[in-house]
From TrEMBL:
It comes from Cryoendolithus antarcticus. InterPro entries: Metaxin_GST, Mito_Protein_Transport_Metaxin, Sam37/metaxin_N. It holds the Pfam family Tom37. This is Mitochondrial outer membrane transport complex Sam37/metaxin N-terminal domain-containing protein. Keywords: Membrane, Mitochondrion, Mitochondrion outer membrane, Protein transport, Transmembrane, Transmembrane helix, Transport. Residues 218-282 form the Metaxin glutathione S-transferase domain. Signal peptide: none annotated. PANTHER family: FAILED AXON CONNECTIONS-RELATED, METAXIN RELATED. It comes from the Eukaryota.
Length: 448
């Protein structure tokens, strides 16, 4: 039995992650309608490279490429040949250029992120992961697209942006005069100071970003459209293969989400209809349509899971996070936010199982140890188990006397005192009474 762990479903797709969608399509393609040989689980651990595949004993593969290699080595596989150069080139092209477009469309765009992406995560993640995973993935997306220089793409209507309007704009139409005066006033809107001219509009950051994004999109879609041409599958294949599943994973996440800034989906629909037909055909033939409500009901267990309709994909309830795992996840993320101990946003490309133990758990263990010591010390002081030294209640100041040196010193001191007393009595002048009293609390000796 194989267990595939992916991010949860969204937008009628098996996952909100492109390569997770590709992995689901690949296993569906490999096993067909046999849902007894593999299971599908939701995972939200962002410290592990998703998707990852395991059997009943160990993790077998992490990332789409590793999963594809593992499935091709199985005895049940019909394709045991090594991938051709064209297959490798197409796979590399999709994985190189596709993530940047998805990052901008779903995460960098503020309107798309707040209205579509973040609510989709909220439906599939537990409460604590909602404060960790979406911001982390958005930070990674911004890191991936820094080289593009894209900062603002959320402008719907150029006429609503009045920040660069020319001087005297509010007075247009109110001037006194004839046709020439009105014509000059209107011409100033187009040619006035250069800020609102066509060149000025095109140089504004949001519009420059739009043109750059459309160029990036065409550089990605144009080669794919030419390779697919009028065929059903890429590279002229007679049936779907690994690169078709990978292309579906990325194209599906570009077409299916209903976002406010839908420039990416509109580009595919208007200029590359063969890519749209390919994506919809893969989605239908492999039966990858996924109802988020049904999957969430299955994950909840109890009566809701019993009443849920059987899904076309072999979804299974995932193990709920224990309180220890939840606290560890929160503590780890808090450590990552600390200066010098934190991390810069990055994309995990290797499985943590191959990393040394100390490298994986050093920071959480350090934070847990320091927190435990601080709480233990506070508890000991509050409850009186640990008392701060305040000294003795009775303090005796002065030079040490013979009586301070144990029993022998006390005896010698007594003899000297008796000698002094006899000497005074011999003179008949001074009479001294000595009382040696031992403090019952063993604090010291009081001499009067």
């Amino acid at each position: 039995m194989l267990h595939l762990h992916v991010l949860g479903p969204a937008f009628d797709l098996p996952s909100i992650d492109a390569e997770c969608n590709a992995a689901v399509a690949l296993l569906r393609l490999h096993f067909g309608s046999d849902n007894e040989s593999w299971e599908l689980h939701i995972s939200h651990d962002h410290t592990i490279a998703l998707p990852w595949l395991r059997d009943d004993s160990q993790t077998l593969a992490s990332s789409y490429n590793a999963i594809a290699r593992h499935l091709s080595d199985l005895p049940s596989s019909t394709n045991h040949s090594s991938p051709s150069a064209n297959d490798t080139a197409l796979t590399s092209f999709i994985q190189t250029h596709g993530p940047s477009l998805l990052a901008v469309n779903l995460y960098v765009s503020a309107s798309n992120y707040t209205s579509t992406t973040r609510p989709a995560f909220t439906r599939i993640l537990p409460w604590h992961a909602n404060y960790i995973l979406p911001p982390h993935r958005r930070a990674v997306a911004r890191k991936q697209t820094e080289h593009l220089g894209i900062h603002s793409i959320d402008v719907d209507n150029v006429h609503e942006d009045m920040s660069h309007r020319p001087q005297g704009f509010d007075g247009v139409g109110k001037q006194d005069g004839g046709f020439e005066t009105q014509a000059k006033g209107r011409a100033s809107l187009l040619l006035g100071s250069g800020k609102a001219t066509l060149r000025g509009l095109l140089q504004k950051p949001e519009y420059a970003a739009r043109f750059k994004l459309h160029a990036l999109a065409e550089n990605f879609f144009e080669p794919l459209s030419e390779i697919l041409d009028d065929g059903e599958w890429f590279l002229g294949s007679e049936q779907a293969r690994e690169m078709d599943c990978l292309a579906y994973g990325y194209l599906g996440l570009m077409l299916f989400p209903k976002v406010e800034q839908d420039w990416l989906a509109q580009t595919v629909r208007t200029k590359y209809p063969n890519l749209q037909r390919f994506t919809e055909r893969m989605h239908k033939v492999l039966g990858l349509s996924t109802s988020v409500e049904e999957v969430i009901a299955l994950q909840g267990g109890g009566d809701a899971a019993t009443d849920a309709k059987p899904a076309s994909l072999p979804w299974r309830p995932s193990q709920h996070s224990s309180i220890i795992n939840t606290v560890t996840m929160i503590a780890t993320e808090l450590v990552h936010q600390l200066p010098y101990l934190g991390r810069s946003p990055h994309v995990i490309t290797t499985s943590p199982s191959g990393m040394p133990f100390w490298q994986r758990y050093f920071k959480p263990l350090l934070l847990a140890t320091l927190t435990s010591l601080a709480l233990s010390g506070y508890y000991a002081i509050v409850t009186g188990l640990l008392v701060w030294p305040h000294g003795e209640r009775v303090q005796i100041f002065g030079r040490k006397q013979l009586s301070d040196y144990g029993d022998l010193g006390a005896a010698i001191s007594g003899i000297s005192l008796m000698g002094a007393q006899v000497g005074h009595e011999g003179r008949g002048r001074v009479e001294q009474h000595v009382r040696v009293e031992e403090n019952p609390r063993d604090v010291g000796v009081v001499i009067e």
